[in-house]
Amino acid sequence: EVQLVESGGGLVQPGGSLRLSCAASGFTFSSYEMNWVRQAPGKGLEWVSYISSSGSTIYYADSVKGRFTISRDNAKNSLYLQMNSLRAEDTAVYYCARTNDYWGQGTLVTVSS
Amino acid sequence: DVVMTQSPLSLPVTLGQPASISCRSSQSLVYSDGNTYLNWFQQRPGQSPRRLIYKVSNRDSGVPDRFSGSGSGTDFTLKISRVEAEDVGVYYCMQGTHWPPGWTFGQGTKVEIK
């Protein structure tokens, strides 16, 4: 069974940093592209970042470019999102997604003073 | 950038009756390989999104056959033949054709029971 479990969310002050993790199981992680998608409270879905199966190709949404860094460790079956210079508008539930067919349950990031 | 526009944004439906959601893209979603990367997702209250339909009309494993997708080019439709109580939630269309930069989602359509 495919499982994606996000962690690392929490309350952080504006300008602060947070690192999200996504633990994958039930499939060959190193064979799949991965994405982060977020959803602000009561709002729709917004794609955040993409990483290829090898990690060699990476894309970001303009809203996070230069502040967020996606990475993966195929030996640990894990996906990461390093978030720096956080803003109030980054407050959202962050989901990791395998290509687009399986999604985790999400982790809530709240940016507030 | 591609813009995805869904309608209606709210859809009250009577149990057992059909429902239809429209999704229009600002550009054709036909990719150079001939495929059209238009997917539909369901998000039940308090849950993460679940993919229902991929590449316009292909149902994911375990998705009831009352869900169907159709369309081409820039106009797409998700239909529920007979709405059940478990179908309550928000439905999103998503394009994966114009990549990079990344996926683009519609605003979402909230399906509720009358």
Task: Characterise this structure.
The complex is a heterodimer of chains A (113) and B (114). In chain A, the strands form two sheets. In chain A, strands 2, 4, 5, 6, 9, 10 and 11 form a seven-stranded mixed β-sheet that branches. In chain A, strands 1-3-8-7 form a four-stranded antiparallel β-sheet, with no helix packed on it. Chain A has 113 residues and is mainly beta. Chain A contains no helices and eleven strands. In chain A, strand 7 (68-73) and strand 8 form a beta hairpin. With 114 residues, chain B is an all-beta fold. In chain B, 0% of the residues lie in helices and 47% in strands. Chain B contains no helices and eleven strands. Chain B has strands at 4-7, 10-13, 19-25, 38-43, 50-54, 58-59, 67-72, 75-80, 89-95, 104-105, 109-113. In chain B, a hairpin with a 2-residue loop joins strand 7 (67-72) and strand 8. Chain B is globular. The model of chain B has no long low-confidence stretch (mean pLDDT 97). Chain A binds chain B through residues 35, 37, 44-50, 59-62, 95, 100-106, and chain B through 39, 41, 47-51, 54, 60, 90, 92, 94, 96, 100-108.
Q: Order of helices and strands of chain B, N to C?
A: EEEEEEEEEEE
Radius of gyration of CA atoms of chain A, rounded to a whole number: 13 Å
The number of helical elements of chain B comes to 0
Q: Which percent bin holds the helix content of chain B?
A: under 10%
Low-confidence stretches of chain A: none
Indicate the structural class of chain A.
mainly beta
Which pair has the most extensive contact?
A-B, 21 and 22 residues
Largest sheet of chain A: 7 strands, mixed
Shape of chain B: globular
The number of strands of chain A is 11
Query: What count of helical segments of chain A does DSSP give?
Result: 0
Separation of termini of chain B? 36 Å
